[in-house]
Each structure stands twice: as C-alpha cells, then as structure tokens.
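Task: fold both queries, return tokens.
Query 1:
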Amino acid sequence: MQSPEQQIAEHVRAALIEAAKCAYEDAGISGLCAEGRWENALGALQTFDLQGLLKKVHPSERDGF
C-alpha cells in the first residue's frame, strides 16, 4: 500500500507524462521537427500547473506544499 505522498507523486508523474506526450504530438501535427517537438514537450513540463494538479489530487491542501 502506498503512502499518501507516494500516491500524490504517482498522480503528478502521470500528469506530467501526459502533458509531455500531448505537447510532443501537438507540435508534430503543427509540423515541427523532432527537436522542436522535444522543446515543446519540455516547455509543457516547465509551465505545468503543479498547484492546480495538487489541489485536484489532494483538495484538503488549499495552500499547496
């Protein structure tokens, strides 16, 4: 059984992977090369709304971590 912290970490990991995949695919549809797609995926990770995700995953933490 995972601790609450481990569960939150797994949710964050899954959300970041999904954000990177979507950004990479969207960049490909827009015609970017592999390097541009990778840069777009990294940008999605850098701008990901962690506080918003944490509020969804653990609503009792109103002020974040």
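Query 1 returned. Query 2:
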Amino acid sequence: MKIDLHGMTIHMAWNVFVSRATGAYYNNHKSIVVITGQGAIAKEFPQWAHQHSHVRSCTQMPNNPGSFKLVLKKG
C-alpha cells in the first residue's frame, strides 16, 4: 500500500496518515510506503509514525529521502 502526502499541509497530511495507516492495519497490510517529499512533512513524519499505535517500525528509504517504509504490527 502507498500513501502520498506530498504537497499537503502538515495538518491535512497528519489526518490522512493516521486514517490510512489505521485502515491498512485493520485490512491486514504488513507494510506501507509513505511519500512525504523532502520538506516539513518529512521532518515530522518519523515522530508521527513512532507515535501511531499500529506502527512497528519506520525506515527512511535509502534511494528516496522523501519516502518512508512502515512495518505494521500484527493484528
């Protein structure tokens, strides 16, 4: 599953992330790729991910610093 937050305001991006990540968890997805771009959202995103109750880990993609791979906890 992929979530593209690039170009959104921080508040809108946070709302979309929380909603879609929660939905992915309940739909039994194992991982999500989140595209943030390289601006303000990218700087805040790791904290959002670590605070989300269904996210096990958050890793910045080595080939694209504007995206992250999230591994979700098992349901």
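Both queries returned. Flag for query 2: The two ends are 17 Å apart (CA to CA).
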